[in-house]
Amino acid sequence: MFSVRGRGVARLAAAALVSGLVATGAIATAGPALADDAAPATGGVTAKLGRITDGGDIEVVEKGGKPHTVGGGLFTMQVEGGGTLSTYCIDFHTNAQHDFTYKEVGWDQSSLHDNENAGKILWILENAYPKLSTEALGEKLGVDLSKGEAAAGTQAAIWKYSDGVEATPKDADAKKLTDYLLANVGELAEPKASLSLSPSTVSGKAGEKFGPITVTTNAETAKLATAPGASAGVRIVDKDGKPVTDAKNGDQVYVDVPAGTADGTTELTAEATTKVSLGRAFVSVDGPSQTLILAGSSDSTATAKTSATWAKKGAVPSVSVTKDCAKGGLEVIASNKGDEPWTFDLKGTSYTVGAGETKNIALPLAEDEAYKFTITGPNDFEETFEGVLDCKTATPGPKPSETPSTPSATPSTPSTTGGTTGDTTGTTTTGGGDLAETGSSSATPMIAGIAAALVVVGGGAVFFLRKKKTAGQ
User: What is the pLDDT of residue 399?
Assistant: First the structure.
């Protein structure tokens, strides 16, 4: 969900990712040349959310609710570094914030972590549009299928398993596709990452190799390098100490720091051009926005990084943080590879990590809760982590007929349940709602109206909405 920035540390020009958060900081550490086995892997594709390019009207019936029409279909996303992605919504009730940046994650880092039907969603993606052409699908169904109809039919089938809603395309041919997919659905295993490095941090003393660092990718090879500004003589090598510039899936490499090198830090960076595997989840970096699932990919740029640090003596702090969707919070992994204890404060609680020890600290958070905290240590060590916990699909809000209206001094825009927002080339929406595009700027009047109504109902509910809106900004 988040990118990485570093003070005093050269970072990837492209977005190098730490699993689950934004990290900023300067690091000076030391310790034995061992990999931090508990540290999460990092890497993947980041992309900016566009708008629906193919789609149509879909009638949705939720449990205990009345039928209402929304617009749904296929989003296009622009990849940082080059490439385009096509995605569907798997978070029906959450607004889609256009121009937000998203990152590729595994199912365990998204709302799919506890969805027993995740494998069925992937089967639909492999057997529907755009993986199969409109011509191929139309021939299978005995109809003349347009791109908009194919996308609407596919999205409706996905919502059945991502959000548990009954979704029926208004177009008869699109409905035939939805019915076919639901009648024949199978299950597939979770796809692999486009690119990752594991662990995300290694440390040691000058004169040693730090690692091993495992490369995972679906590309033929990934380019490896030390980040600009690395100390002279620092190299990426294999287990025999031979320099490495390219790696294949499953290869293990090391960071080699010459003896006598001054205390410091660098990064191993990896980059690959590849098609992202269908079914990879994408979650927002910038704040709450609906979770998406990959339906198609051009050749795209994927990046990853691992930090390497070294020093001569003292405590050797390193910190990584990952989302733990199963437990509803974060897991903070604090390691000390030095020869002295390290004590730090985390949200008002003091923790001590002994020499050579690692502590795993659970940090509970509410769904959609924004967080920001800084961990410090010796030798100007400082890491700041911030982001938003996004592990669940949103719960239903007011139905269109129940949504209170609020006068506005500005020209009216379509409600998130009353019309498609933005450019929707290829869609067939004609006045139905657009929960597939919810969360764009057109959502603001509705959110304001709901908040105003809740002021009368109770302050606690208003506080909840205000907190979600703040995180989205």
Answer: 38
Q: Do 316 and 203 form a contact (C-beta atoms < 8 A)?
A: yes
Task: Give the H/E segment covering residue 24.
Answer: strand 22-26
Distance in angstroms (rounded) separating the CA atoms of residues 207 and 203: 12
Q: Rounded to whole angstroms, how far apart are CA atoms 434 and 415?
A: 8
**Which residues have CB under 8 Å from 43's CB, separation 6+?**
16, 17, 193, 194, 195, 196, 197, 270, 302, 303, 304, 305
Q: What share of the chain is helix, strand, coil (3-state, %, to 5)?
A: 20, 35, 45
Q: Is the pLDDT of residue 174 over 90?
A: yes
Where on the phi/psi map is residue 13: left (φ > 0), alpha (ψ -120 to 50), or beta? alpha
Side-chain-facing half-sphere of 212: CA atoms under 13 Å:
11
Reduced to 3 states (helix: H, G, I; strand: E, B; else coil), residue 54 is strand
CA-CA distance, 22 to 441, in Å (whole number)?
A: 25
pLDDT attached to residue 206:
85
Q: What confidence tier does 25 reach under pLDDT thresholds 50, 70, 90?
A: very low
Residue that is written with structure tokens 């937000």 in the block = 100
What pLDDT is recorded for position 287? 84
- Taking the complete model, does pTM exceed 0.90, yes or no? no
